Amino acid sequence: MPRPGVRDAYRRRARSEGFVSRAVYKLRAIDEKYRLFRRGQRVLDLGCAPGSWLQYIAARIGSEGLVLGVDLEPPQVPLAPPIYFLSGDVLSLDFEAIRAQSTYFEVIVSDLAPRTSGIKGVDQQRSLDLAQRAWEVARELLAPGGHFLVKIFEGPDAASLAIQLKQAFKECHRIKPAGSRPASKEYYLLGLGKLTDSGQQETGPRRRDAGSGGG
């Protein structure tokens, strides 16, 4: 949250454009550069509340796509196709609960952030734990050729996740997008083109039966 009395142009812009959070501009900046989304995709949004990323993704994938949000708190946006929601803690959520909505995703994004304690080392570790959990989900549910975007805080152990993504994706980028406050310690890791176990990239998912949230 911005400090009292500090103007936030992104927050005002979000209100004027109908988004529930300024965070949408971080995702938009990344998408405009790397073209993550296209019509008809299945997208998983971890840590989706209050829902501006859901709003943006839904507009990009269209009515034939699906975006499933997961969070402890419900999003502040209408839950109507292509937007679906699963309530739960990502750290303890069973993969089968996600698979009940869709057995694969072409893009997985995570804007998960820990409840900060004010203790630098503790907050860095909590952020890394969430990012690693998001990567566990992506390893299990992201289709070959798919993309993975995850937020993480600066810290001495954060590089370990970047190493894992460089081995698992055709490309890996570290990003500080427009919309991210300069003083914030957050940044994003983006894996493009998930490789198969043989180290090859497929152009799309192998089709499987969808769960109840298909569209």
TrEMBL record:
Highest taxon above the source species: Bacteria
- Keyword entries, A-Z: Cytoplasm, Methyltransferase, rRNA processing, S-adenosyl-L-methionine, Transferase
Query: What Gene Ontology terms describe what this protein does at the molecular function level?
Result: rRNA (uridine-2'-O-)-methyltransferase activity
Q: Which SUPFAM superfamilies match?
A: S-adenosyl-L-methionine-dependent methyltransferases
UniProt gene name: rlmE
Q: What class of enzyme is it?
A: transferase
Which compartments does it reside in?
Cytoplasm
Q: List, from the UniProt record, the residues annotated as the active site of this protein.
A: K151
Q: Where is this region: Disordered?
A: 194-215
**InterPro entries named among the record's database cross-references:** RNA_methyltr_RlmE, RNA_MeTrfase_FtsJ_dom, rRNA-MeTfrase_E, SAM-dependent_MTases_sf
* Official protein name in the record: Ribosomal RNA large subunit methyltransferase E
Q: Which Gene Ontology cellular component terms are annotated? A: cytoplasm
The Basic and acidic residues compositionally biased stretches are 204-215
- A Pfam family cross-referenced in the UniProt record is FtsJ
Q: What does this protein do?
A: Specifically methylates the uridine in position 2552 of 23S rRNA at the 2'-O position of the ribose in the fully assembled 50S ribosomal subunit.
- Main location as per UniProt: cytoplasm
The UniProt similarity line reads: Belongs to the class I-like SAM-binding methyltransferase superfamily. RNA methyltransferase RlmE family.
Enzyme Commission designation: 2.1.1.166
Query: Where is the Ribosomal RNA methyltransferase FtsJ domain positioned along the sequence?
Result: 19-194
User: Which residues bind S-adenosyl-L-methionine per the record?
Assistant: G51, W53, D71, D89, D111
What is catalyzed by this enzyme?
uridine(2552) in 23S rRNA + S-adenosyl-L-methionine = 2'-O-methyluridine(2552) in 23S rRNA + S-adenosyl-L-homocysteine + H(+)
